[in-house]
Model the fold of this input.
Amino acid sequence: MTTEIFRKEAYAKSCNATVTAIDDRGFQVDQTVFYPAGGGQPGDTGICRTDGGEFEITNTFKDPETSEHIHVLAEASDTIAVGDTITLELDWQRRHKLMRMHSCLHMLCAVIPASVTGGSIQEDRGRLDFNLPETVDKLQITEQLNQLIKADHTMELSWITDEELAANPELVRTMSAPPPTGTGTVRLVNFEGVDCQPCGGTHVASTAEIGPVIVKKIEKKGKLNRRITVVFDQ
Done:
């Protein structure tokens, strides 16, 4: 199993690691700062440095059957071998944008009192689908989001047991991507006084770091489905 440093330390930009496996999917290591695609958040990209040179990592994902944490190289390399000590370095500018937008979508959950049926996160935008019978006002939601962001609510991580989560189902906001259980503990992302829910993604330390945003559009995707797209206000 790969130790996922980012679960507790989202601001870790690089780490040394030992290569534990290589196949046609990519390579695995004993520990990593690279987030694997999941929960609507894309997999991290960046650089792998070895004695044989520098190699581009174009994606990171978890095998759905084995849960192996795979780092995908732009081109296969014969110079990386099992047992090698390497340095992994994130494309931090991209990752930080994803962190900001992911945290922004948690603020959107706080503004919209409805369950989430889907969503996705990109560098410059994010969207959530809400189980809503009626539309909402773009300008009003934009104003409410920016008020929460400017208030500089701090984020804290905590862990609860699977049993505690089962006893508190109201913590789960996303119907389409339920939090992973079965390992004994579930991570909670808590923006103090605003939003607390199970989440495995990477987040900023406080809402002020998100920066100003704009609700770009609100679409009707079904009788009980409203898609809200948010972008950074550059």
In short: The mean pLDDT is 93.
